Amino acid sequence: MTSTASQQTITRADGRTPEQLREVRITRGWLDAAEGSVLVEFGNTRVLCAASFTAGVPRWRKGSGKGWVTAEYAMLPRATNTRGDRESVRGKIGGRTHEISRLIGRSLRAVVNVAALGENTIVLDCDVLQADGGTRTAAITGAYVALADAIAWGQREGHVKKGAVLTDSVAAVSVGIIDGTPMLDLPYSEDVRAETDMNVVTTGSGEFIEVQGTAEGAPFRRAELDSLLDLAVAGTADLARIQREALATEPAGYRA
Amino acid sequence: MTSTASQQTITRADGRTPEQLREVRITRGWLDAAEGSVLVEFGNTRVLCAASFTAGVPRWRKGSGKGWVTAEYAMLPRATNTRGDRESVRGKIGGRTHEISRLIGRSLRAVVNVAALGENTIVLDCDVLQADGGTRTAAITGAYVALADAIAWGQREGHVKKGAVLTDSVAAVSVGIIDGTPMLDLPYSEDVRAETDMNVVTTGSGEFIEVQGTAEGAPFRRAELDSLLDLAVAGTADLARIQREALATEPAGYRA
Amino acid sequence: MTSTASQQTITRADGRTPEQLREVRITRGWLDAAEGSVLVEFGNTRVLCAASFTAGVPRWRKGSGKGWVTAEYAMLPRATNTRGDRESVRGKIGGRTHEISRLIGRSLRAVVNVAALGENTIVLDCDVLQADGGTRTAAITGAYVALADAIAWGQREGHVKKGAVLTDSVAAVSVGIIDGTPMLDLPYSEDVRAETDMNVVTTGSGEFIEVQGTAEGAPFRRAELDSLLDLAVAGTADLARIQREALATEPAGYRA
Amino acid sequence: MTSTASQQTITRADGRTPEQLREVRITRGWLDAAEGSVLVEFGNTRVLCAASFTAGVPRWRKGSGKGWVTAEYAMLPRATNTRGDRESVRGKIGGRTHEISRLIGRSLRAVVNVAALGENTIVLDCDVLQADGGTRTAAITGAYVALADAIAWGQREGHVKKGAVLTDSVAAVSVGIIDGTPMLDLPYSEDVRAETDMNVVTTGSGEFIEVQGTAEGAPFRRAELDSLLDLAVAGTADLARIQREALATEPAGYRA
Amino acid sequence: MTSTASQQTITRADGRTPEQLREVRITRGWLDAAEGSVLVEFGNTRVLCAASFTAGVPRWRKGSGKGWVTAEYAMLPRATNTRGDRESVRGKIGGRTHEISRLIGRSLRAVVNVAALGENTIVLDCDVLQADGGTRTAAITGAYVALADAIAWGQREGHVKKGAVLTDSVAAVSVGIIDGTPMLDLPYSEDVRAETDMNVVTTGSGEFIEVQGTAEGAPFRRAELDSLLDLAVAGTADLARIQREALATEPAGYRA
Amino acid sequence: MTSTASQQTITRADGRTPEQLREVRITRGWLDAAEGSVLVEFGNTRVLCAASFTAGVPRWRKGSGKGWVTAEYAMLPRATNTRGDRESVRGKIGGRTHEISRLIGRSLRAVVNVAALGENTIVLDCDVLQADGGTRTAAITGAYVALADAIAWGQREGHVKKGAVLTDSVAAVSVGIIDGTPMLDLPYSEDVRAETDMNVVTTGSGEFIEVQGTAEGAPFRRAELDSLLDLAVAGTADLARIQREALATEPAGYRA
C-alpha cells in the first residue's frame, strides 16, 4: 500500500488512509462439499464464494473441447441495513443482480484457458452474507481463489489435465472520489457519498479486465479518472498478493 | 441427554448414541445490522437466522393492535452435495421451500403474544449455508433466539412495551427410525435411510406445537410413533436448555 | 362408527357426535375420458379426483423399471365462501397448494408397488369444486379410488401386468380439539374454531402414513395428541370400508 | 328446433339432425355459497359457472356510478381426452384461455345496464369440468343464468336497486360446415372435422353480440356464411327458451 | 374503391367517404437481414412485419414433411397516445396480444400449402410502431407480403422447392357502424365511437378466412352485419390489388 | 473528426478511417403522439427513442419537489441477423437488457436538474429496430434529443417552469481495439472481433459520465485504455455537434 505525502493527512472514518484497503480475509474451505469455497471479507463485507465443478458443458458448447465458467451473485435479504425482498419471492432477478453476475463471470473467464479446462463447467456462487460496500469486488477477489481450488480439485480427481488452466490471477477493487479526494475500497458509508464510483478488475500482472466508472453526482474529468485508475491498480496489486498468500497455505476451513 | 440402557449399545456413524443430539452451537449477533441474528449449527448443518424488526403491520392487520411474525426459509445453491438451481433464477419458489417457511412461521407464532408485540412486524430469514439434515429444525431452534433478540431490541428502542411478549420458548428436532431403531437428530446420511421421518416442534415446557411424521418406506405402527415422540420430547428439552444458556450470556457475535 | 358414552352427550352443529364422519359419498366414473375418476364428498366438501394414466415415466426414472404416481391439488376460485384469485392468473402456485399436492402424492405412493406398476405414470388431479373443510383428506380418500380404477384400466389394456400393484388402501381424515373435545372430520365452521388441528393418513390395515398436527391456538399435550390419534384411526377405518364398498360395485358414473 | 326437409335426411353420429342442439341442461344453485351458480351441460360438455357478487368496483371505475361484470374461463386438466398441463403450474395463461375469458365477459356486458347495477362487481368463473366441444358457448349460456341469479341476490340483499339490470338474455352456440353440410352445436368429434367453425352469440331477441367465424380448412363463401348464421340464430333462440324455463322454476340445486 | 351515391354525402373527419381506405403503403425490404420484411402503413398506423425463415420445424411436426407458419404481434410502449407498460416488464403477455398473434397466424396459414413449404418454419413478427386503429388488419395485410418474400427467398436459396407455396393472397380490414353508418378502415378516433366493430380477413379471390364482429354498444341486426360484410369485401379487394402491385415491383427498402 | 497521420492508412471494411463515426442521422418527431421522439441511426443501427412525459412521480419520490427520468431498452426479435425470442414470451427480461436500460437512465439523469424538472416523470423507450453494433450508444445519443424535446413540450404546456432543466447534453460511442488498432464506433462485424470493447458516455463539454471497458480477449494495458479514451472523447464531441444541429432545426418528422 503506497501512499503520497499529501494524502496521508486525510483520515477516513475507519482510520484508513485514502489509499488503504480495509482488512481483507480469505478463508478457504468454508464449505465441506464444494470443490472450492471461500469466505472473503473486505472489512464488514462478507461474501461466501462456492465453486461447483461438474464434468460436461452446456449443450451449445458440447464437442468444442472447451470448458465453461460462469457465476451467480445474490444477496441475502438481511445482508443490508434494511431488509430487501427475496428475488425468489418476487419471481424475478433484478437488473443489478444480473449485471454483477455477468461481471463476475466475465472477469473470471478472462484468466481461464478454457481449452486447458476441457469440457468441464465451474459455477461460482457468490452469496453476500453481509454487505458493507464493495460486494462485487470482494466477490470477484474471493471467487478467483475458489475457482483455483476447484480447478486443483478437478486435476487431483483426473477430470482436468495437469498444467496451467489459469493464465493469471484476477482481483477487483472499488475506488471513488469523496469530497474531492480519490479513495480506495469504499465501505457503504463512503459509497453513498462518492461523486464518482469506479470498479476496476485487473490481472495479477496489473493489466485491465474491466473498468466501470460512473459519475454519481457531477461528471468527472480525465485527470480524476487517471488518479482513480492509479489507486485501483495499486489496490488490486495488494489483493493479488493476499490471494497468493491464501493459496500458498493449507486451507484453514470453517472456524479457522 | 438421557439414554436408556438398551439403546446405548447402538453406535451411529458419527459416534452418537441413538438419543443424542449432534453438537449444537448458537452464535448470537452474527450480523451487524439485523435486530436479531443467529448462526445456528446442528453438527455440519449451518443456518443463518436474521430477524428484521419493522414498525407497522401488513395492511390486513392494521388497526388490530396486534403484531405479526413470519418467516422465509431458503437454501444457498451449494449448501448441498450437488449444486441446486437458485429459485430466483427458476422464477418460482419450490413446494418444499414454501412448506418449511410456513412451518417456521407457525411455530414461532405459537409462542408470541401478538397483542403484547403491538403493531410491529418481525420477519425471520432462515438461510441454509450448509445442509446436513435437519435444516428446518435447526432453523426453528435458531430463529427463536433471533426472535427473542429482536423483541428485546424493540423493547430497548421503545417500539414494544416492556413485559413478556414470548409466552414460552420453541425448539424443534427430527427423529426417525433407522434399521428399526428410533434415532434423534438425523444427519443427511441417516435421513435418506430412515423408514419413518418425523419433525417435532415443542415449547420449552414440553408441549407440542407441530408433529409431522411421514412414512418414507413402510407405514409405521402406533408403538413406533410413540417411541419417536418420546425421543423428540427429550431432544427438544435439551435444545430448550441450550437456547436458555445462549440467551443468558452476552452475544458473542461473529468470530466468536 | 363407534362412540363412547361420555362423548355422546355432545352434539355438533350438524347433529353429529364427536366421533362421527360426515356423510361420505364416492361416485366413480364421474368423467368419461379419465382412466379413473371419482367425485368424492365429505358433507358439503366436493372434490373431483381424476387419474390420468400414461405409458412411460419422467426422464429421471427411465430405465428403472419403476412407475411413478404424483398428484396436483387445486381449488376452483368460488369453491369457498369468498372468491379467491386463480393461481394461474397470479402466475404462481401458493404454498398451501404445493404442500397439499405433495402430501397427496406421498400418501398414494406409500401404497403403490412401483415395480409392479412398471414404467407407467399416473397423475391424480384433485380439484376442489366446493370446500367445506377437510379438502385434503377428502382428496386423498377419493384419489385412492381413482388410482385403483386407473391401475385396473392399465391392467385391462395390457400396460400393467396382472397382480397386486396396490399394497393396501389409503384414506385420510381430519381431527381437532374444539372447546376441549376431540372431534372427527371437521367442517369449515369447526375447523376455524379448533385449538389443535390434525390430519392423519392411514392404510386400510390401520398403520400410519402421515401424521400432521398443528397447534392453532395453545400448544397441545401428549394426552390430547393420543386421543386425536385414536379418533382418527377409527375414522379412517370407516373410510376404508366405504372405499371397499365403492370399489366392490359397478361404477355408477355421472348422474348416479 | 326447426328443420328443413332437405337436411332431415342427414343423421349425425349421435343421432341428431344437422339443426338440432344436443341435450341442454341448466342446473341452478349447484354451489352453496356463490351468489349465482349453474352447472350447464351441452351433451357431455359440462361447465360450472359461478357468479361472485361483491360490492364496489375496480379502482379505475370508482365514482362512475357504474358496475362491472367480468369473466374467467378455465379448463380442468383432465376435462379433455388427454391430460393438459395446469396453467397455474406453467405459470402463465394460454392465449386460448385469455381469448375465451374476454369473449364471455364482453358477451355478458352487452346485456347489462351497468348504471342500474350500480357500483358492484360480478365475476363469472366458468370452469370446464368435462369438454366435448362448445365449451365457450355453453359457458356463455350458463353464465347468463348465474349472472341473473347473482343480480337477483344483489337486489334481495339491497345492494342493487329494484328494476331491470339485464336488458335482454344472451346465449351462444357453435355452428360448422362438415362434409359440406352446415351443422349446429358441434361435439368434439365434429369440431375437429369442420371445414369452417363459427361461434355466434345473440340476445334473446335474436340480435348479434358476437360473430366469430374461422376457416379451418378452405376459405368459405358468403352463401355458406349466411346459412351458418341462419342455423345459429335458430339455435340460440332455442337456448334462450331453455334459459327462460330454467329461470322460471325454483333452483334445483346440486343433486337435482 | 367503389362508392354508392347515397353514402358519398357523408364525409369523415379525415375527408374520406365511408367506403374508402386510408392511404395504404407497403414498403418491402425495410430490414437488411430478415428474409422478408415490410413496413405497412394504414394512414398513421405503422406496423413492421419481419418474416424469419428457418430450416426445420417444431418437434411436434418433425417427419411430417410439412412446414409451419406462425406469428407474434406486439406493440411498442409508446405506439399509443398514452404509454403502455411493456409486456416483458410485466412478465406476461396480455390477452389481446395473444388473441391477435393467433389471428395473424391462422390467417396466413389459410393460404399456405404447408406440404409445398416442406419442413421449414416462417415466423412473422408484427411490431406496431405507431397505432391509429386497425393494427391487426394492417399486420395481416403486411405480413402476407413479408411471407411471400420469405418464401421466395427460401426458393432462391434452395430450401423450398419451386412452385406455388401460397394458394392465394390474404388481406384484412376493419369495418364498423358509426352513428348508424357502416364505415371502412377505422382510425382510432372512429374505432372508439363504433357501435359495432368487425374485422374481416379474406383471400385475394374474395372468400372469407375470418369474420369477427363484436357489438360494442347495442347488439346488431342481420342487415347491419350484411352491409358490413359488403363493405369489408370491397376493402380487402382493394388491399389485394395494393399487395399485388407491391410484389410486382422491385423492393424499395428503407428510405424508399 | 481529427485523425493522426499514422492511423489514416488503415481503412475499415466500410471505408472509414479508425477515428471516423458511421453516418449518424437524428430524425425528430418520428412518432405523432410522443412528447419527444427520435429515430436515431448510426449506420445500419436504427433505434426508435420515445420520450413519454407524465405529470407526477413514483410514490417513493412524492413530495420531494424533484422529477424522475428513467429508460427502458429493448430489441425487436428480428433486429438481429438471427431471430431472438421475445422477452415478453420468455416471461423475463434478460441481464443484458436490464443492464443497458439502467445505463441509459443513469446517463440521462446525469445531465438533468431534477429540481428544475419538478415532480414530473419522463420515460425514455429505446427500441432497437435494427441492430448493427453500438445500439446502446445510439440509444443514449438519440434519447438525449427526445428528452430535450419532451422537456420543451412540458415547458410549452406549463407543466415545467421555464429555465434550464438540462445542465449539459449527453452522447455515447463505442470504441475498441481491432488487430491492435483502436477504432471508433464499431459495427457488429468489428464488434465481434474486438479484443477490447469500451462504451464511453460524455457530456457535451467533454467530461465523463460512464466509462465501461471490457477485455474480450486478452487484458488491456493502460496505454491502450488511454488511446481508447482519446478516441471516444473525440467521437462524442462530434455526436454532441450533430445533436445540437438536430435540435437547432425544425423537427423533420416521419418521412423526412
Automatic annotation (TrEMBL), chains A, B, C, D, E, F:
BP-aspect Gene Ontology terms: rRNA 3'-end processing; rRNA catabolic process; tRNA processing
InterPro entries linked: ExoRNase_PH_dom1, ExoRNase_PH_dom2, ExoRNase_PH_dom2_sf, PNPase/RNase_PH_dom_sf, Ribosomal_Su5_D2-typ_SF, RNase_PH, RNase_PH_bac-type, RNase_PH_CS
EC number: 2.7.7.56
Enzyme class: transferase
Superkingdom in the source lineage: Bacteria
Alphabetized GO MF terms: 3'-5'-RNA exonuclease activity; tRNA binding; tRNA nucleotidyltransferase activity
Binding site for phosphate: R96, G134, T135, R136
Swiss-Prot/TrEMBL keywords: Nucleotidyltransferase, RNA-binding, rRNA processing, Transferase, tRNA processing, tRNA-binding
Domain (Exoribonuclease phosphorolytic) ranges: 20-150, 169-234
PROSITE patterns: RIBONUCLEASE_PH
Any Pfam family hit: RNase_PH_C
Reactions this protein catalyses: tRNA(n+1) + phosphate = tRNA(n) + a ribonucleoside 5'-diphosphate
Record family assignment: Belongs to the RNase PH family.
Role played: Phosphorolytic 3'-5' exoribonuclease that plays an important role in tRNA 3'-end maturation. Removes nucleotide residues following the 3'-CCA terminus of tRNAs; can also add nucleotides to the ends of RNA molecules by using nucleoside diphosphates as substrates, but this may not be physiologically important. Probably plays a role in initiation of 16S rRNA degradation (leading to ribosome degradation) during starvation.
Subunit structure: Homohexameric ring arranged as a trimer of dimers.
Full protein name: Ribonuclease PH
